[in-house]
Amino acid sequence: MPYSPLTPDILAQLVRIAGPKNVLTDPERMEPYSHDEVTDPAYHHLPEAVVFVETADQAAAVIGLANEYHFPVVPRGAGTGLACGAVPIYGGVVLSLEKMNRILEINEAALYAVVEPGVRTADLQKEVEAKGLFYAGDPCSGDSCFIGGNIATNAGGNRAVKYGTTRNQVYAVEVVNPTGKIVRLGARLQKQSTGYCLDQLIIGSEGTLGIITQATLKLLPKPQHKLDLLAIFPSTEQAIGVVTQIIKAGITPTCVEFMDNITIKSVEKYLHETLQDSDSGNYLIVEVEGTSEDDMDDKAVLLDEICTANGASSVLVADSARIWQARKAFAEAVRAESLIVCKEDVVVPVDQEPQLIDAILALAKKYNLITRIASHAGDGNIHLNILKNPDLTYEAWQEHVDANQQELYTLIYKLGGRLSGEHGIGSKRKVLMEEFTNPDELEMMRAVKKALDPNNILNPGKIFDVE
Ligand SMILES: Cc1cc2nc3c(=O)[nH]c(=O)nc-3n(C[C@H](O)[C@H](O)[C@H](O)COP(=O)(O)OP(=O)(O)OC[C@H]3O[C@@H](n4cnc5c(N)ncnc54)[C@H](O)[C@@H]3O)c2cc1C
C-alpha cells in the first residue's frame, strides 16, 4: 500500500497540532497501541506515531495533514476490540480519543446525554444511574471500552434483546470526515425522513468513514424491578432452543445469555470459585425487568414453566452479581487458558440458532478443536472461541481453523446469518468478509468508502480492501 512515511517535518507538524505531550514516537511507549485485545502477535503492528487529540479541531487538522502527505490515520478508543480494527496495519498515525473523555451534558428532563468519544461505557452508566436514569448499551467490556468505540463497532452486548445494539441508543454524532470536515449527523428526533441516514452509516463503520468526536445518546428511566434467572440444561440444543419459546410467550427478556459447561468450568477456574449448580449442565441466564414485584413473580413462574418443559433440570433465582461476573469473565478466562485463540462472533436468525450450535459442535469434533462457547443467545450471536491445540504446530492448528471456517460460514450464510454479530470485521476477518459477502453488496460498500475517503487515509485495510 503506497503510503508516505512520517517524515521529521510531518512529525513536527503533528506536534504543532496536538502539542508535544500528545505525540508519541518511542516504540516502547507505542507498543500498547500496536494491538487490541487480539493477543496473537501475528496480528500486531506498530504505528509510526500515536497522537492524542483533545478537540475535534485537532482531529480535523491531523486528517488534513494526512490527506496532504498521504499517510494513514487509525482512530482508537480503549483498544478492547476483537477484530484488529484499531491496529495500524500500514503504520502511520494511531489517533487516540482517550483524552476526549468528558460527559458534556445529562439532560434529565429530555432524557439524553451528550458525551465525548473517550467516555468509558461503565462511567456513563454509573453517572446516569445516579440520577435515576439508564443508558441501555451494555457490552461485556463496559468497564474498559469507550462510547466512541461502541458506536464505531455498533457494539451489542447483553441487553440488545430488549433495547437493541448501540445504533439504537444514538440520536446524533459529530464526526471528522475523511477529508477533514467536522460534521454533525443525525438529530435528537424520534423520527425523520430527511435524506440519507448518514449517522447510521457512520455507526458500525469501524473508523473507516469518520472519527466520532461527540455523540448524543438516548437515556431511559431506570427500570425499577429486575430479576436474573439461571436455568440449567443438560443439553446444549435444549438450552438454545428455549429462546424462541420465551420470546413467543410474550416475555421480552432484557438478556438471554448462554454458556456451555466446559466454559463454565473454565470461568470457575479463572475466578477461583464454584458457581451455582455448575456440575449439572449448560447455563442459560435470563434477565427480565418488570413494573412491580407481582409482575416479576408472574414472569419468573412463566419462565420456570417454559424452561422446565424444554428440558431444564433446574431453574434458580440467580445471584445476579456473581452470575454476571462469571459471564463477563468469559474472555479473560479464555485468555488465561491460551493467548492463541480464534474468536468467532457468528450470528444467525434466532430461530436458526439451535441448528448453528449443532453444527458448531459437530465441526469441533470433526476438526479436533478445543472450544469454549458463550452466546448472546437472545440475539442469535454465538461467541465460539477455538483455543490453540498444544499438540499441533501453529500452522497445523491454523489449517484446522481455516477448514472449520469454510464449512461453518457456508452454513451460516445459508441460514441467513453473517460472520460478525458485534465485534466487527477489522482486518482480522477481512478475507472472510470478501469471500462470503454478496459481490454487489461489497461493491456498494466500496463505492461509499471511495466517495467519502478518496485518498483512502482513514483506517485503510479494514472491513475490505479498496482496490
Ligand atoms: C472482555 C471483552 C468483552 C467484550 N464484550 C463485548 C460485547 O459484549 N459486545 C460487543 O459488541 N463487543 C464486545 N467486546 C469487543 C469490544 O469491547 C467492543 O467492540 C467495543 O465497542 C470496542 O470499543 P473500544 O473503545 O475499545 O474501541 P477500539 O478497540 O479502540 O476500536 C474498535 C474500532 O472502532 C474504531 N474506533 C474507536 N473509536 C473511534 C472513534 N471515536 N471514531 C471512529 N472510530 C473509532 C477503531 O478504529 C476500531 O476500528 C468485548 C471485548 C472484550 C475484550
TrEMBL record:
It comes from the Bacteria. Keywords: FAD, Flavoprotein, Oxidoreductase. InterPro entries: FAD-bd_oxidored_4_C, FAD-bd_PCMH, FAD-bd_PCMH-like_sf, FAD-bd_PCMH_sub1, FAD-bd_PCMH_sub2, FAD-linked_Oxase-like_C, FAD-linked_OxidoTrans_Type4, Oxid_FAD_bind_N. Residues 43-222 form the FAD-binding PCMH-type domain. Its cofactor is FAD. This is FAD-binding oxidoreductase. It comes from Megasphaera hominis.
